[in-house]
Amino acid sequence: MTSKEIRQAFLSFFESKSHQIVPSAPVVVKNDPTLMFTNAGMNQFKELFLGEVQAQYSRVTDTQRCLRVSGKHNDLEEVGIDTYHHTLFEMLGNWSFGDYFKKEAISWAWELFTQVYKLDTDRLYVTIFEGDQSEELTKDVEAYDLWKSLIAEERILLGNKKDNFWEMGETGPCGPCTEIHYDMRPDQERQAIPGQELVNGDHPQVIEVWNLVFMQYNRLKNGTLESLPAKHVDTGLGFERLVRAIQGKTSNYDTDVFQPIIQFIASKSQIEYGADEKTDIAMRVLSDHIRAVSFAIADGQLPSNNKAGYVIRRILRRAVRYGYTFLGFKTPFINELVPLLAEQFTGVFDELHQQQSFVQKVVLEEEVSFLRTLTIGIQRFETFAASHDKVDGDFAFELFDTYGFPIDLTELLSREKGLQVDMDGFRRALQQQKERSRAATAIDTSDWVIVSQGDQTDFVGYDKLEAMTQILRYRKISSKGNDQYQLVLAVTPFYAEGGGQIGDSGSLVSFTGEEIYVTDTKKENGLIVHFVNELPAVLQGDFKAVVDKAKRIDIESNHSATHLLHAALKEVLGEHVNQKGSLVNASVLRFDVSHFAKITADEIARIEDIVNHKIRENIVLNEQRSIPYRQAIDSGVTALFGEKYGEFVRIITLGETFSKELCGGTHVSSTGQIGYFKIISESAVAAGVRRIEAITGTHAFAVIKEQFDLVASMRELLNNPKDFIAAISKFISENAELKKEVENNIKERTLSMRADLEAKIEIVNGVNFLAATVDLPNADSVKMLAYAIKGEIDNLFLVLGADFDGKPSLIVAITDSLAKERGWNAGAIVKNLAKDIQGGGGGQPFFATAGGKNSKGLPQAIARAKEFLT
Ligand code: SER
Q1: Strand order in the sheet with 648-654
Q2: Which of 75, 215, 234, 237 to probe ligand 1 with, by most ligand atoms within 8 A of CB?
Q3: Which residue of 57, 150, 190, 730 has the fewest C-beta atoms within 10 A of its own C-beta?
Q4: What stretch(es) of the chain map to CATH 2.40.30.130?
Q5: Domain 3-257: which topology?
Q6: Is the CB of 233 within 6 Å of ligand 1?
Q7: CA dist., res. 96 & res. 115, Å (int)
Q8: What is the per-residue pLDDT for 71?
């Protein structure tokens, strides 16, 4: 079977068991502070397991793209070195939400493996949870007995909490699991050492392929386990490992999932795959990492300098560095893999194919800039190595941190120079940095405290800005020494940050009259959480929730204008522009779009024109709630990449043929309320992404007023001319002419002074000496005078002083040959003389200047000059 057939067979098998096939969630996670990337198939169903959201289908199946590169599940350092870990991998899964449990999950897994995939039962082993006393969890006898009816008993092994109790993270849904392992060793080896002894032993040929988790607990912050409202099944089958088992390969990279890409890399580098361990690892790294990077970008996460963006940047840099060091790719190459990958995933994850040129361009730009950094870093290393006999930990860390050098690159370069790297020092520096960043970002969240029954919030904020409500639960969150509380309410008019629109603020008024300020509203997992700085004295009873109305109106004006802008951008720049991010708050709207050139002033003017036209048309908002996703897409709405839409969506239409978007935000009831739209900036944010900032409504009005006032005061300064521009141009050209005249005057005066001064030169100790103060308006003219005299008189020692409106200055000029011959230094002399004017200065041996604060000291400085000759 090809990998495509293997994937399809999985989905069809579970479809035949009444499972609904659902799409993969994006790999980039939003709305969950505990997770940056999807790291398991179950992430998108977390709320269903916790019972916070009702499941639409009780059985589903899918292939989920996952990234295990940060947090609890992190495989990054193994990737490429071994043959069965990946950054991005596909996890095939079947789920039961409160429907079937262990019996069906186990027997279907067995049926699929033995009947459909026809895997060798002789190579299969299973593990079950042995129990854990400290957690008061008993052995999973039920799973054991179920397996006993399917597989020889000696193939059922007991596993501890680490291997057979699956947890998503520090907190969250969890439960005992049973894993299926496959032994891919040749017969001879299998006879010599039984597979039982190698299961979970990090043997590259005896590996876990499928994990069936029986979700029945929620791990709380305080470490205890709480039973979930219902029992669920979560299975994760590693697609790339499965393909390897079925195709009988000894490495995931030898399957048709990776080989096309590896062979392309091999042909470009002109190195054969399989020729050498080092170059093989590099090819595996490249072929793996490009998958993670491409899908992260396609799902909306651009490489950047912090958080998720930084993780992506580091993965790409790891690939660039392996390519550079081991495969000789000194110029950008990795971006060329994007089209291959897009083609491979067409029909599976179409997001990549649809944004292929954008993704490729972003990767290319990252490569270009990192290769530049790498080159500078290598120069830095060369300079360091030339003057040191060992590489200390701090320097290795600087290379790592500033130039993106992984430690093995530093070791490699050092070895070539015969230098040792202080690894302990490096690890210390790394550890210190980790602690610094952990302290900077750590957010401590306590467990929820239940106030009243229920965990579903009724959101009424599309229709109302006030509502009566009760507090359902609260918890404390602490970050950098600041405490806040999060509240979940029974009913809320507060919009939770989402789709670029910031969360509402406002207040909660209790029945006793106490008022608590709500600083922000966010969505976390399935919950709408309200942030408050203090808890009300009485938590029970009714509260009136009131949204800050003026702020909300400004936000809505900006949000609706964003939709109009999006449509206008497509009209003016072309259909290729896609939204790459947006921010809508009360004062400004920010919109990022994929577009490869600067948006010209003319295009900006046209875009503004279209949007303002639509505002004046006063189009009435058409808001449709709960439209089936498919129906919405078929009607031609604009949907965003990297956004996880539910089964039912909300459509915001502003002009049937103009703007139709899937959106959860709040909007004006007709476009006239926006008032006016003005773009205030256009810039680049990343390769192929332009950013537009604009203002509307009251803010646009304030800015326009400010501009009018500015022009009015400028006109007034020029006595209100009829033609303002002509008046200003005249003013400027007159000013330029006057300036020229003044300069000529000064020049004439300076040159006429020269003759008088030269007449005063005396010969002291065989040197032509002159020290004098002159009356000139600026430093340039004094300098010109000094150079003029120096150009005429040989063997000269000249000191000139001048006072520019209370700012004294000195110049010392010495004929070059004289300075050399006698070892005099104008810089040192001027420094000494400047003491009299309370100043300092310097320059070269033959010419130096100084400035000071005390003009009264000038005569003394001039008088002292002669001392230097005697
Ligand atoms: N949640 C389990 C895992 O990620 C099974 O899907 O391994």
Answers
A1: 622-628, 648-654, 659-662
A2: 234
A3: 730
A4: 444-547
A5: BirA Bifunctional Protein; domain 2 (3.30.930)
A6: no
A7: 22
A8: 66
